[in-house]
């Protein structure tokens, strides 16, 4: 699980954020539509779902790697939050 999570974090994350789908060759990224290289998705099953999976992995293993990855996902969501709430 750690090796797969490391790949996901190192190769698919964008500043801690994720989209819904990455193609097998990593050339295409999708959310509700085609995502640009600098976009993440802030609704499930994008960044929030991946962050929760990392958090559950941390709870199960106690491995700090997973808590750090969950924190990265949380920070990506916080970064995109507007003061107005939208």
UniProtKB/TrEMBL annotation:
Organism: Gimesia alba
Domain of life: Bacteria
Descriptive protein name: Uncharacterized protein
